[in-house]
Amino acid sequence: MRYVLGFLILVLFFCIVSCDSLFYYPKKEFSSKPIPPRQKELFVASSSGNRLHTFVFQPDNPKAVVLFFHGNSRNISYLYRTFFFLYESGYTYIVFDYSGYGKSEGAASRSSLYKDGIAMLNYAHQLAIESDLPLITLGQSLGGAVLSSSLDGFDSIDAISLIHLDCTFPSYRDVADYHGQFYVKIPIGSIVISDLYEPFRTYPKLRENSVLVSHCRQDTTVPYFLGQQIFSQIPTKEKEFWTFDCKHSAAFWKEENQQKLLDYYQEVLANSASGKNKIPGNLDL
Predict the structure, then answer these.
(1) Domain that holds residue 279
(2) Does 9 have pLDDT greater than 60?
(3) How many domains does the chain divide into?
(4) Nearest to 98 by CA among 135, 59, 145
(5) Please, what sign has the CA dihedral across residues 81, 83, 88, 93?
(6) Which CATH number fits the domain that encloses residue 205?
């Protein structure tokens, strides 16, 4: 019996390691489509031991610095486009690849992405200070989870004017449980997925920040109810929950939603500069 138990523990250990890797689908090859000129292209050192390939699109007279945490697949040569309209509308736009993605060094893991996130938060914060600009952080899908967990290790959360979490999740285990239900009848995520650096552990710290949670109602990759959970768990009064009729991460491909987001960012920055508080609420679009 002792040997059987030991074997099962060993199997479970390897399952946890391998199952966590299912969250990451990096692509090394760059897109064949041309990428607009970057004001900066550099490698940022992470405490993961890896250097992170980074684009900085910087317009004349920027309104703020936006740091974007992308989703779980491909690399920045594809994913910079997701919120490129922010740069086109006057924001300094930083997009980077996690360890193992694109030209970034190393391999993707829960631990390396957590450390990568902290490194990029520090980089963006320093750039915002040097430019005398507000800082906005934006995470989509997996990127929202990486952003949330990395904020726990970031020493200047109060310096962030807005935290925007789009189509993301509060727990890796919850996502695994949701998808696992279609194959088995037990909460497989709670059994085989690590609880290391779970995003929800950062939420209690967000007591003073402005936070925008946005989610697609028809999202079958990261279901809508997980966005609702995030919103309910964040304690700040300066929060809004936006919902859209769309599938996963598709809301801000529409120009009308892009404009609503631009107007909202501008409003938050104006209120932040004047010291006014926003009234929290929900917005169905």
Answers:
(1) 2-284
(2) no
(3) 1
(4) 145
(5) negative
(6) 3.40.50.1820
